[in-house]
């Protein structure tokens, strides 16, 4: 059976989806008193908010992510993979699989499958922090389950 849910990069979505998520965040954090105020602040109508509020959420909000596949392009230098593995240890993530390609032009592709159940960080924060690490050229969330 085909799933009714898809995982889509937010850059592909119309801007009002992002605004609905921002309005939800304002309400949850107490930065807006009500839906009307939150909707007004982000620039959408209340009806747009109500139409999409239960149908759009981040992966972290959905709490569906138990495992994630992450692809990274790493500099081919001694210790970089150990740094990445230590980062996951610090995040309380278990590593299920590691697949590394042979380096080409001193860059290696590494794909990790990690378990997120006990993670102290959201998958968005993990991807962001990995992207900022020295020797990491590209990080991509390939999928979650």
User: Taking all residues together, what is the mean pLDDT?
Assistant: 89
What is the number of helical segments per DSSP (H or I, 4+ residues)? 6
The general outline is elongated
Q: Indicate the percent of residues in helices.
A: 25-40%
Radius of gyration: 18 Å
Order of helices and strands: HHHHEHEEHE
Task: For the record, give the distance between the C-alpha atoms at the N and C termini, rounded to a whole number.
Answer: 16 Å
Structural class: alpha+beta
State the major sheet: 4 strands, antiparallel
What percent of residues are in strands? 15-25%
The largest beta-sheet arranges its strands as 2-3-1-4
Compute the number of strand runs: 4
Return residue spans where pLDDT drops below 50 for at least 5 consecutive residues.
Answer: none
């Amino acid at each position: 059976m085909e799933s009714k849910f898809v995982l889509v990069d937010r850059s592909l979505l119309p801007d009002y989806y992002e605004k609905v998520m921002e309005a939800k965040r304002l309400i949850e954090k107490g930065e807006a008193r009500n839906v009307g105020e939150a909707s007004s602040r982000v620039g959408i109508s209340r009806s747009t908010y109500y139409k999409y509020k239960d149908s759009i959420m981040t992966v972290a909000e959905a709490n569906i992510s138990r495992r994630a596949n992450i692809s990274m392009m790493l500099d081919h230098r001694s210790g970089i993979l150990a740094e990445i593995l230590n980062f996951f240890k610090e995040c309380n993530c278990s590593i299920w699989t590691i697949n590394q390609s042979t380096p080409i032009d001193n860059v290696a592709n590494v794909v990790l499958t990690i378990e997120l159940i006990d993670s102290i960080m959201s998958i968005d924060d993990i991807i962001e922090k990995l992207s900022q690490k020295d020797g990491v050229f590209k990080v991509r969330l390939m999928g979650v389950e």
